[in-house]
Request: fold
Amino acid sequence: MSPVPPRRGLLSGTAWMPYALLLPGLLWLGLFFVTPILTLLSTSLQEGSISTGYRFTWRFANYTNAFSDYQAQFGRSILYAGLATLLALVICYPLAYFIAFRAGRYKNLMLLIVVAPFFTSFLIRTLSWKIILADSGWVVGMFQTLGLLPPGGRLLATSFAVVAGITYNFLPFMTLPLYTSLERLDASLIEAAGDLYAGPVTAFFKVTFPLSMPGVVAGTLLTFIPAAGDYINVRFLGTPSQSMLGNVIDSRFLAVLDYPTAAALSITLMFTILVLVGLYVRRAGTEDLV
Amino acid sequence: MCAEPARRIWFERATQQRARGCLMTQATAPLAAAAAPQLPASNTPSLLFRVWRAITRNLVVFYAFLALFYIYLPVIVVFIFSFNDNSGRYNFTWQGFTLKSWLNPCGVSGLCPALVNSLQIAALSTLGATFLGTMIAFAIVRHRFSGRTATNVLIFMPMATPEIVMASSLLALFLNLGIPTGFGTILIGHILFNISYVVVTVKARLQGMNSALEEAAMDLYANEWHTFHKVTLPLVTPGIISAALLAFALSFDDLIVTNFNSGNTVTLPMFVWGAAQRGVPPQINVMGAAMFLVALGLALASLGMQRRSA
Reply:
């Protein structure tokens, strides 16, 4: 996406203007994003302990050790984030579709109503799920009555609660991009598909869904990326046996003060996500994200 | 087999028929024509299509309200438990109605100072990120320069990086440089993660803008500065405002970057994070409910203004 900039804009004649505009922001990103990532890389190759101090020794064993020690947490991060992303897509697509095509003049109002709950702090929302899923709560009661849960079975402190919490917390990141791309969609194309004897299901899968792909890609990425690094839902709704990579990084960095392991895990998480995102974007065929 | 087409209102059967090569037969054609005789045939979707669409449309409505219920359930619980007359440290079971937490929202020590810290950090980081991000957006949309792709990648990277990586890398930097963490380091982190969101939001507004208006201003002998000040800036302002609101919300609600780089400074999310381990007073629910009401009020007000100006 590189539109030809108009020839006449603010001081567009001067060659230094774009650099003057870019410099402060890019300097900030360079100082506090690129440098820290490089520091993290060097920290991940250090050796030692908190009492004796850490020294840089190209210690790649930090990576292999971290990975073999925390394989399970790593797998759960990807699995939970993937499940939550899929669930969020299934929940949000019809909702975004409804707002885009059926809400008429109340479109903006509906969108506000959907997004407003997410202005109640992330943590307070998650604590609220703790009340809803509590052992004595009506949700557990309902599940037991329906036979979905054995008597005495729990929802809280299970993978179910953690995935449900993650799904819930990132819903607006899915809904908004989906809505944007559906709202832009030309409804006459769907009617044309009908005229050409495509059934509604065919029309949806051959016309509507492919045209909303940019929204689907953006929404799934915006959900998956923060979900994979989340550790708050596990802390509030799960137990250590559901712990994700975020929990390990958090405790290694802030409680155990084992910086090299924490750094190695962070770098691994970052590169895994970059690779997954790269593969996914290539497959989905939408390289024009920013 | 294409028999009895008139009774086949159900779409699935019809699709099967079509798949077998049976198009609309003589028996269904008059039905479709009778349903919409006033419209030219080319604009009218088939009857089957419309019947099915009516069903799915209502399904979508039903489904949307179910989703809304799911979205609002925790908010309702936050509201209800803000009126809970809880005894003991936890606020997880209903024990009776009281207004005392609403009347005394600062009754828990540390809660209101944390709120003030959060508001200050959110305001300052919004200011910083909006300023830096808007300039970048202008440069990207309005100017040609070398290193464009590299700039775009640099803007995209923080959004594609899990927050915990950003948070831990910042802490690694501060630890290595021996910089003590606190209010300033939280601010640095918040400006950092907000810049990209501001750039993306303002860029979208700039790209959607009609440059004819600016060209008209220039044709009418406005100089570059006047055009920018009187035409460009007013047109971009809604984009800048939504970017600033987004930045404020992201900063105000942030736990992860704050948790790693806060030192002894306690923000509202940090307070809740700590309280979740020590015991959750209902005043926290009061804060959550109030935040929801303020956000909803602001959003409705802006919607009303849009409607009036439209």
